[in-house]
Amino acid sequence: MSNLEQFPLFPNFRLLQNLVDGSLNQSQNLITAMRRWRLINWFYGDGEQKPHIESESKDELTFNEWCQEFFKLQPPHQSNHPQGKSLEKTEDILKPHNSQCPCYKTTKDWLDFYGISVAQWQQDLQKHSAISKQVFQQILKERLFAKTRRTLQNDINFLKDREWIQFEYSLSKRQNEIYQVKQLPSWFAEGSSQPTQEEPNFLGGLNPTELADLAQALDMLTFLDPKLAPIADRISQEVSGTRRVFLHVDYVVPEEIQFEADNLQEKLQENWRSNEIKPILFNYHSARLGKKECVVYPVCIYYVQRAKYLCAYGINPDGDLNWYNYRLERIKSEMFLEWSDACIPEFLLERYRVNNLPLPQDVQDDMKRVWGFDFYQASRLMLLRFNRDFHDSHIKDTFRHETFTLVKSHREKLSLIQKYANNSEQEKQLIGILQRFPDDAYYTAMYRVNDNNVIMRLRAWGPNVEILLPGDLRSRMAKDIQETWKLYQN
Fold first, then answer.
1. 33: which of 16, 198, 389, 441 fits an S-S bond (Cβ 3.0–4.6 Å)?
2. How confident is the model over 287-336, as pLDDT tens digits?
3. Considering only CA atoms, which of 9, 74, 86 is closest in space to residue 41?
4. What is the pTM of this model?
5. CA dihedral for 174, 176, 177, 181, sign (positive or negative)
6. Which residues pair with 290 in a beta bridge?
């Protein structure tokens, strides 16, 4: 069977899964896979007799020529799709130019273009992955080719690496030319046909609520580490007709807002893939300060306490030049800036000039040094006392933080209290606690002052832990407990 006889390809799960490095449970991966599916069909002529490129012809396409050809419109329409440097900025691509341009076509438009049933496509994917109906609706509205030059070039490079197309350097054009391959990838031999109704359903008949929960959990799993994608794609499979493996991840962001956060994450990742990472200007909806404008250098993303955060350095919501953790879904109206932009603070610009911009490793190192996600806050020493039974059952042989250390010596406990107690009265009180509970477990840790994640952990331990130092944290926790007690007195 020749290559052309297999086209156009149906975008089934197996094909799409092989078109991304990761899991299709993550919405941006599915969008990327659908865009690459459309590219493959284009390069092989959409199933027409004459392909768009032919391995034996003399008019193969460079990337620039592909852009011109792909976004070209038939008369009487004229495509004003951005070309050249204009293709480097998302805002230029999103500017109105012609509603018939391929970059305006959504996922649904491309499925319709090939006469593919949306319901059949969705049904095939849901047999193998946990994608909720809400996310499917968002993906169907996504403009697959409203992307920068870099993203499209990455897609074509990916297809070349996976042996869907091949490159050959042209001396005359001084660029790589794109060719069809004579033999499609070996794994593709049985993966190009349309799905049948008899294929097994690996999701075991989950109801919509369960499906949404599983989709959210698997999306978060693959976000945490792409190497976990195989686990995510197999976690819902049955054993002898019954599901035995389950995953629960708390996530407070509603699904429709989560999709917006995923889109921003994709833009940030595209920026990080570039040769020169750009700063970003955005409005931040701070829970504490309201709407604030920030100009920052984006460094990395963390998932912490049920939400995604951008760790960035620059002008934060307080108006200071410092690090800050930004909830992804609260970032609005973002715009990537050129380093020549006048609104970039001079101190950040100076670090750019001397090639000393912050790195993700800087964030990781700070988090290892001190317990807490707000790694830019001041640090202090903490002394804790755990009930012995609770400690032996729940704390012993567990990892909390690099600085979370058991204090074995009574002399060391006394020394810490004498050094860090606020006054003689507090020192006397704390020494009395040591005398009353000599067999309990005492731990020290370096923690970030006012870090909510640390406070939440201490609260979760409840009456099984007592904060001895520092004094102000001990007082704060005591006051919180008293205020809580008032709610239940009557």
1. 16
2. 889 999 999 999 999 988 778 899 999 999 999 999 999 999 999 999 99
3. 9
4. 0.66
5. positive
6. 286
